[in-house]
Amino acid sequence: MANKERKMLLQGNEACALGALDAGCRFFAGYPITPSTEIAEKLSEELPKVGGRFIQMEDELGSICACIGASAMGRKSLTSTSGPGFSLMQEGIGYACCTEMPVVIVNVMRGGPSTGLPTAPAQGDVQQARYGSHGDHEIIVLSASTVAECYHQTVRAFNLAEKYRTPVIMLIDEVVAHMRQNVVLPDAKDLEIIDRKHPQVHPDWYHPYDNENQVPVLADFGEGYRYHVTGLIHDENGYPTTVTEEVTAFIMRINRKISENVDDICRIEYLGSARPDVLVVAYGSVMLTAQEAILKVKEKHKLNVGLVRIDTLWPFPDQLLDKLIDKVKKTCKKIVIAEMNFGQVYREIERINRGRLPLDAYFQVNGELIQPDAIYKKITGVKK
Amino acid sequence: MKMGNIPDHVVFKYLRKNKKFPHIFCPGCGHGIILGALIRAIDNLKVDKNKIVMVSGIGCSSRAPVYSDFSSFHTLHGRALAFATGVKLANPELNVIVITGDGDASAIGGNHFIHACRRNIDITTLVLNNNIYGMTGGQYSPTTPVGGIASTAPFGNIEKPFDICELANGAGASFVARGTAFNVTAMIKIIEQAIVKKGFSVVEAVSQCHTAFGRRNKMKSPVEMMKWQRDSAVDIRAWDKLPEEKRTGKFKIGVLADHEYPEYTHEYQKIIDRAQGKGKEVKK
After folding, report:
1. B54 interface with A at CB cutoff 8 Å
2. How many CB atoms lie within 10 A of CB B20?
3. Rounded mean pLDDT of A328-336?
4. Interchain contact, A230 vs B74, CB within 8 Å
5. ipTM, 2 decimals?
6. Is A56 helix (H, G, I), strand (E, B) or coil?
7. Does the structure show a pLDDT above 50 at A46?
8. Does B125 touch chain A (CB under 8 A)?
């Protein structure tokens, strides 16, 4: 068959839905909420065509719970939501971490707090995505700044969820979700798709939460391995335990399976000058604003600007940014961070920077997309 | 039943070999009796062990699945039915059995409960109702009777309790029944019917918690609580003949509702067929 690249005009939400389908997603449970609803709408139409299942649940917590239930049956599962719904899902996200059930959550960030600004963009959920669910756990969070990235990052989210048996969160914002762009999607057959591993041993020899494996090999329910899944801290057989050694082994493993694989999980994209005078850090729709601002800087000033796009928000790409700062610190006069919150990524950069370069920031929390001029002024220091 | 026969006892066929015992239930708790009834019902029906998934929420009742040798899912407080909905829809050929309690099903999980009834998805739900939050030490639940004493109702409960069966029937469940830990043989039959029924089945299993409820409410021992069950439970056939004034303080047991409603996964399969263009006339 000929290469089936697909030229399409899509919005970010639709691209997330198509990325999920191409990654092998066959279950969706969700609850209507602006500005993420198009993902549910698209999948309600597309999933049954490929034998998948769609259900509209009674709330967002029910939605993520249904997804985890379906995941335990071996179906790759997706839910999508926004601000208030994401807050409701936190208990389920913690459960998926503890039981190591792969699931992907798309959170389209809107203005908050509370009901906030349902149709306006924001990036106020970055720290919530990391620390929103109680207890110590690692989490994988990806971002996207264009429609094409929505597609590819959703595919990657499923791959990471399956590989590390963990929930993966896609954080996009309202602008990226609703923006329409021409994209060329690859033939789904050309994608690298990762599927979870299944046990090969006899059921009597099967230890579902064996700490010898960094990522446990979990059977689908109904396969003949009758094991126990619980949100209580559990031993290698999945049974509740309070034995200190067993608790330690479990907690360390579920954290280490992420923290010891940051080389695989963390990604940033560096664009622009190799010897920058100014370094700009952005993610999501602010990335587009930053690119526009940099074009204007090039027109008017003899300044070299480097631009960093953060593709993996959590675990935060400490090593990658640390190396980058070391590399550019000879020429670079400052780092500019722009985001639609009051510094949720800024503080991470501040931590990694360790005072090597001066930091400057542009924070905006008013429901408006950051305008290129605001970033332009920060880069150049021009007041007007 | 001879003592020497214990290894052949039906319950032992379904106990997990590698699970550490004792279980967490207090001596005298009704939950073990009801779990035993469930296991006997499954054994009578000869359902394949590998095709059963037990799902539970949080609370004493929800600890039951861990002891039995099925795939088991101990989930979040109140959310067992949401998980179970995902399980059943993802793999409709599995028998999904939910074990939940009065607080788990009708307080924190009340919304999931009525929506699972409304969808009529083929899940069997046992609500182990002991009228109290036992695990946390005896706080009043949505089924604590008015006037009942609880650790958070030291002057008596003033909230009108739910009738879980009425709630399930009103919300659209296709099979609704009630039994007690005392009337255990009837309970086995009821659970068998509930498992066989295609659609959402609710069995309210009245259980005793003398530890957290009985001791505060003039029923100090499990025996007194079971006597209360014996004296208060009226078979549905006798209930209708019982004059109104004699019904006070009593409740009916047996199959209370049995409807034929379209089942959710069956209806969803039609959606899949329609989306895939099956069943349509193919023009040549």
Report:
1. no
2. 11
3. 96
4. yes
5. 0.97
6. strand
7. yes
8. no
Residues of B in contact with A58 (CB under 8 A): 82, 111-112, 115
φ, ψ of residue A189 to 5 degrees: the values are -70, -20
Q: How far is B244 from chain A (nearest CA, A)?
A: 38
Task: Note down the domain range covering A275.
Answer: 266-380
Same domain assignment for residues A163 and A278: no
The pLDDT, as a whole number, for residue B284 is: 47
Last residue in a domain, options A174, A190, A206: A190
Answer whether A57 sits within 8 Å of B271, measured CB to CB.
no
pLDDT value, residue B6: 58
pLDDT digits (tens, 9 = 90+) for A154-205: 999 999 999 999 999 999 999 999 999 999 999 999 999 999 999 999 999 9
Min distance A315 CA to chain B CA atoms (Å): 26
Q: Is residue A97 part of a domain?
A: yes
Segments forming the whole domain that contains residue B98: 23-236+246-275
* pLDDT of residue A383 exceeding 90: no
A360 inside domain? yes
Residues A15 and A112 in one domain: yes
- In the prediction, which pLDDT does B5 show? 54
Q: What is the pLDDT of residue A344?
A: 98
Total domains in chain B come to: 1
Say whether residue B14 is in contact with chain A using an 8 A CB cutoff: no
A71 domain residue, yes or no: yes
| CATH code of the domain covering residue A361 | 3.40.50.920
Cross-chain Cβ contact B53/A70 below 8 Å: no
Of the pLDDT bands very low, low, confident and very high (cuts 50, 70, 90), residue B20 is confident
Nearest to A71 by CA among A239, A221, A240, A171: A221
For chain B, the C-alpha Rg in angstroms (whole number) is: 20
The domain spanning residue B264 has which CATH number? Answer: 3.40.50.970
- CB of B67 less than 8 A from some CB of A: no
Share above pLDDT 90 across residues of chain A, in percent, rounded to a whole number: 96
Which pLDDT band holds residue A356 (cuts at 50, 70, 90)? Answer: very high
Hey, are the CB atoms on A221 and B73 less than 8 Å from each other?
yes
Count up the domains in chain A and report the number: 2
Q: Is residue A224 within 8 Å of B50, Cβ to Cβ? A: yes
Q: Which residue has the tokens 């400057």?
A: A360
- The answer to the question of residue A1 being in a domain is no
Residue of A nearest to B114 (CA): A58
Per-residue pLDDT reduced to its tens digit, B171-207: 999 999 999 999 999 999 999 999 999 999 999 999 9
Q: Which of A226, A235, A241 should we substitute to test contact with B (largest number of B Cβ atoms within 10 Å)?
A: A226
Does A24 contact B at CB distance below 8 Å?
A: no
Work out the burial of residue B97: count CB atoms within 10 Å of its CB; fewer than 13 is exposed, 13-18 middle, 19 or more buried: buried
Q: Alpha-carbon distance A112 to A367, whole Å?
A: 9
